[in-house]
Amino acid sequence: MSAQTAWAVVALCAVVTAFIKGVGPFALGGRELPPWFGGVVVLLAPALLAALVVTQALADGDRLAVGADTAGVAAAGLVLWRGASILVAVAVAAVVTAAARAAGV
Amino acid sequence: MTAEQRRAWRAGLRAGAPVAVAAGLLALSFGVLAREAGMPSLAVAAFSVIVFAGSAQFAAIAILGQGAGVGAAVAAAAMMNSRFLPMGVALAPSLPGGPWKRALQGQAVVDASWAMAADGKGGFDRHYLFGLTAVQYVAWVLGTVLGVLWGDLLGDPEALGLDAVYPAFFLALLFEELRARRAARGVAAAGALIALVLVPIAPPGVPVLAAALAALVGLRDRRTA
Asked: Range of A3's domain?
């Protein structure tokens, strides 16, 4: 890519990202919570986190794909379920993924 | 800042440290990949310094690497970032000040900080959020610079399993949500299903945004919320 292309992407991504992150607080803050608002907000995190996990662990671009990283994230899920800390889970995910990849998965 | 706000900020810095380790590792691989895609070193560093949105940066690099133009790369990054729209809306009532000041504070939203700063009742502790994000920001920028400068010594980030670091981290945050409230289970399952169904047919990023719709079942509980 040309330097010009690279810098244009960086500058435009900065503007677009700032807009996306800022537009909600800009338009909606400084007022009372409607009663239903809190009920939706507390459920946004599980919905978005679950979607982030599956799109990163079970997809490769626009196709569904099971790979070494799927095994790593599944292993992390197992140790988390057994009560492991976040750092242990992350380390298990990386090690299992690396091992599976080394084994040719 | 009041003493209490300072405490929240410091607690955020501490709680953000493990996330920052993950962010730093991912940034390392971003630096390597961006250099491999042919982006000038200074532009790679600037990308992390002024954009600071991991998945969007990876998406833009991947699209550019396929030979696409500026418009396609920026559109991919925007789609990837679209999940920050509902996050920003959720955060808005917890931010004081005028619209511009709130928009500025909204820049501190990244996935992990947003999820961790939620108080479980629909509100957010903004100073805790700022602390969480600050430590991740430093790690993100440092990791990128290290990846750009010494990425050759690191080898292939995928061989080290670094691509599994973030999904594992999000899974850990998800477990905390599931333990905190029963209703989260069905919502998480629905969000995952929506995302998976959309992956083959929607542009990258949209599946995660659409998964936010699963949270609307919270409307059902409005009388108890």
From this structure: 1-31
Size of interface A-B (CB pairs under 8 A): 343
Domain count along chain A: 1
The predicted pLDDT at position B25 comes to 86
Q: Extract the tokens encoding A26.
A: 């800009």
Find chain B residues with C-beta within 8 A of A3's C-beta. Answer: 40, 43
Interface probe for A, chosen from B47, B154, B171 (most Cβ of A below 10 Å), is: B171
pTM: 0.85
Q: How far is CA B162 from CA A67, A97, B110, B131, in A?
A: 14, 8, 19, 25
Count the Cβ atoms, other than its own, within 10 Å of residue B87. Answer: 26
Is A1 a domain residue?
A: yes
* Confidence category of residue B221, pLDDT binned at 50, 70, 90: low
**In this structure, is residue A62 part of a structural domain?**
no
* A10 or B220, greater pLDDT: A10
